[in-house]
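stuck on whats below:

***
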Amino acid sequence: MSKLGTGSAGPSFRIGRPGQTTLLLQCGELWLKHGVVNNRSSLSVWDDFPVHQVPEVVRHVGTSDRNFYDRYYFNLHACDDSLFLILGMGQYPNLAVQDAFACATHAGAHHVVRASRVLGDRADLTVGPFRIEVQEGLKRLRAILEPGDYSLAFDLQWLAHTPAYLEPRQFIRKYGRVLFDTQRFAQTGFWSGWLQIGDQRFRVTPDRWWGTRDRSWGVRPVGEPEHPGIRQNEGLLTGMWNYAPMQFSDHAILYMVNETDDGDRPLQEAVRIWVDPNREPEALGRPEHEHELVPGTRLVRRSRLRFPRAPEGELVVEVAPLLNAFVAVGTGYGMDPDWRHGMYQGPLVVQGLVRQLDEITSFGEYGLIDQVARFTTNFGQVGYGLHEFGFWGPFRRYGLVDAFSGAAAT
């Protein structure tokens, strides 16, 4: 180490040997030879906790992949067809962006509020009018959207119904590149607080306002679109995605299938999660799906989910969709070229929009669809929850012969 000199900020020292990266230290600040970095600006509240996984500050994740993300997802419904609220917040450390959205389907309209800012301290769970508070990890959280010049506002408290369940890791590699490498946990729960949609205010109580949430992180396509290269028009995720966390009185069922057009399943899961934390989750075996689509569309009209190897004998769940939410429209899930999760919008941007459902259904059905659904088992149990699906490219089992066709009339 050699001394370089002194100045108003104090002495400077050089660390390193010829041919190596050289670091300059001056009064607690750190410069890289090829760019100035102040180590105080990289530090965050989280760095005072023993949570580090790699020899970096929390602000810098363990991969340089631009597509690394870390996200919250919640939904809320009244166990009927009256409304469906979906909200989320994500951080994209290698894109230096943090964003949030809320989407409500109610009375024939699609309401969206979305916000984006430059990512700073990763412990700061605010984006403009949005705020998430983790009050008791894996049990109690609070989600807030302050009132403003848009059609949604809420102050909602989440209380867990079941213990959080760690789902199987999703991994997809195409042409040598990792496109998906994600981890997620899921949970069913109850809501309390208030929700405002337009001029209508709802008092939210846990006896009838239920929902599901998840936390996911890892690598998946985010931000500004990248050139597809060898993939050309081939989709990132193809075939059918189908996901259903079902909430019953003393348990939840988590069902998940990603199936390609040729029947391969890169990902699947079927498990019963008990409210009693002392009871271990119960594997239900390979799940089977039987969907009926609305003719001429990619929308599910009704479904039957079967679990032939469930411990108590075959379990059959009839799925009755109650309300469609076109969550890919306006929220950042990929249908809007000017607003995608992780896309840089500026230092802080907040926007609101309202669209009629009959205006967006014809193209919204080609994205991700979240349905409020009623689930009835062959053992007489009735529950409610999320039924999520998307069909990308052909899926001939249900009459989708190419990327644009709808189901044939039956």
Notes: The helical segments are 39-42, 357-364. The CA atoms of residues 158 and 216 lie 17 Å apart.
